[in-house]
Amino acid sequence: MNRIPNLFDYATSELSQNVSIDYEISTIKVGRQWCKIDVWALINNEYFLVIEDKKGTTEHSNQLKRYAKTAREYII
Questions:
Q1: What is the pLDDT of residues 6-62, one digit of tens each?
Q2: Rounded to whole angstroms, what are the CA distances from 17 to 13, 21, 45, 57, 73?
Q3: Contact, 7 vs 13, CB < 8 A?
Q4: Residue 3 counted as domain residue
Q5: DSSP per-residue letters across 32-49
Q6: What is the number of structural domains in the chain?
Q7: Exposed, middle or buried by CB within 10 Å (0-12, 13-18, 19+), for 36?
Q8: What contacts 38, CB < 8 A, 6 or more positions away?
Q9: By residue range, what is the domain housing residue 69?
Q10: Residue 67 lies in a domain
């Protein structure tokens, strides 16, 4: 069974967040509750970040695949 990646598997301590990345962020748009996506961010009109709140529930109805499709269509 393929396991869906979880951010907390990788960022296990505060030190995981203290990495220097050579990427300039010039614009960020942020919103919530759009196309059933809990929280989203569009970075530099290039990267669309989807955040799904799963406290007390689990993924259902291929949510993540649908949200990825929505994000790809939004950027194009």
A1: 666 665 565 555 556 777 889 998 888 888 778 888 889 888 888 877 766 666 678
A2: 8, 11, 23, 26, 29
A3: no
A4: no
A5: EEETTEEEEEEETTTEEE
A6: 1
A7: exposed
A8: 32, 51, 52, 53
A9: 25-75
A10: yes
Q: pTM higher than 0.85 for the full model?
A: no
Length, in residues, of the chain: 76
6 domain-assigned: no
CA 40 to chain centre: 7
Task: Quote the CA–CA distance of 71 and 35 in Å, as a whole number.
Answer: 10
Is the Cα dihedral 40, 42, 43, 46 positive or negative? positive
**Pair of tokens at residue 32:** 């919530």
